[in-house]
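The authors assume throughout that readers already know how a fold can be written as discrete tokens. In essence, backbone conformation is discretised, so a fold becomes a row of integers matching the chain in length. A single example would do more here than another paragraph of explanation. For illustration, here is how one protein appears when written out as sequence plus structure tokens:

…
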Amino acid sequence: MRTKAATIAFALATLLSHGPSEAAPLAETQEPIKLAQFNVTDADFITGVFGGVLEKAGYNVEYVKVDVTALFTALELGDVPMSPAIWGSLQDLIDKTLATGKVEKKGTIGVKVREGWWYPNYVADVCPGLPDWTALTKPDCIKALSTPETGGKIRYIGTPADWAPFDVERIKSLGLAVEIVPSGSPAAMVATLQGAVQRKQPIIGFGFVPHWFYGAGQGSFVNFPKYDSGCRTDPAWGINPKEIGDCDLAEGEIYKLVNIAAEAKTPAALRILDAYKISTDDVAKGIHQVEQEGLTVDQAAAKWLEANEATWSAWLK
């Protein structure tokens, strides 16, 4: 017959011998960890998966809505202690944040991204020379992509206002005859381009992969001059259009940033952030589930967690 002490010891040993999903919580605090969401499906899905893993570790997670640029200030202040979804195309903002000494980079999540000016394949027929950007300077191409509303300039479907694609700077730097038509939301941006493709209408606009629409093989990205060490910002003037506007930041990765002070408060969460990886295909699938299948970001993230327990449970060890 077991003694009470022996029974408690046996129960504790049994608990600790179970898999990570049943292990004792790792969380050092029950104060909510705030994670930023932007109302951008791919970023919110990536953050939702990470938040779900933190919850598996015993943390309370609170999602806060911020715009992309405001996130960097929130990271510096510690209001948002960490983020697993920082696009490399925001290099200027990343550099400024790291320079404060309050934030550090924790590597990448393993997702390869491409973003920039996207056009349907059939547009190359009316703009010979694409994907080279100089095709957009040719009179026939300008005429094919213009509308009466754009006054003879190329109609370009731009991003929502809180994104930072440097389109204005690029147009000014390269002397392009382009009129930006801003989109009210990511969904509206995609819908405008998708509708044009269905009608075989000549069009160009901002696009990104991974994504179920842009990555489906029915279009390509414009190739601008490549980003190099000369593409910097002028500290006296902020963004220098000539330097950053004509340099392609399109190809890159997604980074993890953390407020340095947060490491001391929640070291287990930071270990999970260090380990966090997700595939490009998984992100594309998550976007499709939200934008085409009607799932919420939380539901799509939950489906990933359910299907990938062996992966995320290893991050809790």
Summary: The chain has two domains: 20-112+252-314, 114-251. The longest helix spans residues 41-56. The domain at 20-112+252-314 is CATH 3.40.190.10 (D-Maltodextrin-Binding Protein; domain 2).
